[in-house]
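Task: complex structure prediction.
Instruction: return structure tokens for all chains below.
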Amino acid sequence: MKTLYVKFIVITIGMMFISFILAFIISNTYYQQKLKPFNDQKNTKVALDIAAFAEQHPEINLHEYLKSISAVGYQMCLVKLGGDRTFFGKPFRDKSMPISTQEYVLKGNVFHGMLHFPQETFVTGFFSNELKNTIGVPLKYQGRTYALFIRPDIKFLFNEMHILFGWILGLAITLTIVMVLINTKYLVKPISNLTKATKSLANGDFTVKLDSKRHDELGELSHSFLWMASKLEQIDEMRKEFISNISHDIQSPLSNIKGYTNLLENESISNEERSHYVSIINGEIRRLSTLTKQLLLLASLDRNEDIIKKKLFNVGGQLKELIRNYQWAVNEKGIMLSYSLPNIEMVGDPSLLNTVWDNLLSNAIKYNKPNGSIEISLDKKGDSVFITFADTGIGMKNTEVERIFERFYRADMARTRTVEGPVGLSIVKTIVDLHGGTINVRSKENEGTAFMVELPIR
Ligand code: ADP
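Output:
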């Protein structure tokens, strides 16, 4: 596996290399355009000065004179008219020089070897220790004509600088590479930590620890990761809670059914008792059936939104019909039910919305107190319909209100033992959401609860 660490280092060093080449090309262009002519000019002046001094002072010894100049950092070649060559200073690596050039200078012309030294040799041409890479000037001494070829002894002049720059460059490159190695480790480490955390999360360990105090993208990522871990933990908790709730919801009717079928097996019971037991068993079967139907509905609502089939219908009429079906339960609990339900038409899925009203009304009855009351109202404002179910029941704590729309949440296991389906309100919320509406709750413990639904008319 190519790690990020290795990639980062390879890229950085690659970039250094490319920058080096670019810098070389740019400085070479500068050398060819500006420095080379300037260098040629400067050395031409030096050569002419040397020649002029020799011409004006015939009393000096020419060879001694040139020797002493070469000692301060010049390489020279003195050509006599016949072609005899004498060298001064450090020897040239390449001493070749066309005869024509020598004659050209002997005739009194200046030879600009530095300026015309091949272009392809880049900056390094400057260092090329060749006789062709010189300035040639004519020199008159004691009436005789010579040609003097001269170039600075680069090695002599720049040796220490050379070493110094070499060291600076070498050190800079080494230090950069070392720093990149260390820095990259520092940058990549949080990512490796994240990978470890991901693995432990996948194994169900939610207690991951990450450094989320960094103020950069990685810190942000760690932060989001921790947030995701806590959400996943919550979901995992809910899943466990769901399994325990569902098992309980399935188990209790099953054990009731089992108990009553055992009783039915006893042949000595009266017909009256028998039919009572059968009706209890039927009730329990109904409970189980409602539970599975609700679970299936929720699953299909989750899977696709196409499940809703909207049409124009009368909500007021639908609510009145529902109340009629619940009248017996209301009467049985001695609850006062009042309503104001004008005929209002809206577009929606009547069957799904009926499930919403059904849940809200059955909860209002279920969680009511003896002799309590329920008030249902329907209203139209602007483009919305407002439906409210208010009861004077047991109410809820604030902490409960926050969670009731969560799937499988149940405020208090003990108090809802005879209830069908732990998923009612989450179905309600899903259906209202699918219709583009909202649902709100206002509740006070021991005083009552009101559910307010707002739905778009169309
Ligand atoms: P279920 O009623 O089957 O437990 P729901 O999803 O319908 O499931 O309701 C979730 C929880 O919300 C209930 O367990 C109950 O604690 C609370 N709740 C719902 N409606 C009311 C209400 N009208 N009054 C008080 N508590 C309510």
